[in-house]
TrEMBL record:
GO CC list: cytoplasm
UniProt cross-references to SUPFAM superfamilies, sorted A to Z: GHMP Kinase, C-terminal domain (SSF55060), Ribosomal protein S5 domain 2-like (SSF54211)
Protein name: Homoserine kinase
Signal peptide boundaries: none
Protein task: Catalyzes the ATP-dependent phosphorylation of L-homoserine to L-homoserine phosphate.
Length: 299
């Protein structure tokens, strides 16, 4: 058995507008763990934005790894984890889902579980409560997923997205639990029909890779964005400026407060330069779809 591995997990964006809790996209922004077997547990955070004070038993990756080991009746061996992340916490870029997927993968290698991709999809989505970010971190690319009452995930996986993405990250956190509190408990039937139609058209456009339609329907959400917009800095201004600069469309990334635009790859650098000037209080990052999903290599 090897004694050292590197686990790489892509972050993700969820929903892309009306694909509420079901559409996810793996992004080329990563959580990385270098794992070394040793006699005692140790977790070291290498990125500046990660907390420096760590309680092992409270760390999400440790908790998920331990829970996964218990699920399969295994004893989790101790190790040192050196962790870096390009995913700011509570910004809508799938940081918790990536950590969950990393924790499952950690147990997979330490306990020789030989988990299938379907196992990883099911376990991560069950822990998250929905399959959007989790499936995107497991598979990479675009995922359109559902999870049944038994926690079994069914996913349509779309690769080779020929577009770029730009995320607008404000310097504020917005926890998903808080963002869910502003959502209505129910919709009337006609409203729900229109909202579902827009979600269906987004999903179909994504499968067809019709980027102009994708952008159009990303901006037609009725399930959550109208209610969360007031929680997001410069929500409407970013939508308008991104469209004027050539974006196909813009939507909340997950529950926010990050916004994400889909753009033609040819305009990437000039688009970012323009947006940085207009929105100096946001971190504006150009990225692409990840195509590998969670990846483990021996070091």
């Amino acid at each position: 058995m090897s004694k050292k591995w590197q686990i790489t997990v892509p972050g993700s964006t969820a929903n892309l507008g009306p694909g509420f809790d079901s559409i996810g996209l793996g992004l080329s922004l990563y959580l990385k763990l270098t794992v070394t077997l040793q006699d005692t547990w140790e977790i070291v955070h290498l990125s500046d934005h990660l907390p420096k004070e760590i309680v092992i038993e409270d760390h999400l990756i440790y908790k998920i790894a331990k829970e996964t080991a218990e699920r399969y009746g295994k004893e989790l061996p101790a190790c040192k984890i050196e962790m870096s992340s390009e995913l700011p916490f509570a910004r809508g870029l799938g940081s918790s889902a990536a950590a969950i997927v990393a924790g499952i993968e950690l147990t997979n290698i330490l306990c020789d579980l030989d988990l299938t991709t379907q196992d990883k999809l099911n376990i991560s989505s069950q822990i998250e409560g929905h399959p959007d970010n989790a499936s995107a971190s497991v598979l990479g690319g675009l995922t359109i997923s559902s999870m049944n009452e038994d926690g079994i995930v069914d996913t349509i996986h779309v690769q080779d997205i020929d577009a770029s993405f730009v995320v607008f990250i404000p310097n504020v956190e917005l926890k998903t639990s808080v963002a869910r509190q502003v959502l209505p408990e129910q919709f009337d039937r006609q409203y729900a029909v229109r909202a579902s139609a827009n979600a269906n058209m987004l999903a179909a456009s994504l499968v067809l890779k019709d980027y102009e339609r994708i952008g159009h329907y990303m901006e037609r959400d009725l399930f959550h964005e109208p209610f969360r917009a007031s929680l997001v800095p410069e929500f409407y201004e970013i939508h308008q400026s991104a469209k004027e600069a050539g974006a196909y469309g813009t939507a909340l990334s997950g529950a926010g407060p990050t916004l994400i635009s889909i753009i033609p790859s040819a305009i990437g650098e000039q688009f970012v330069t323009r947006m940085e000037k207009i929105f100096p209080n946001h971190q504006v990052i150009l990225t692409k779809a990840d195509h590998l999903g969670v990846l483990t290599v021996e070091v």
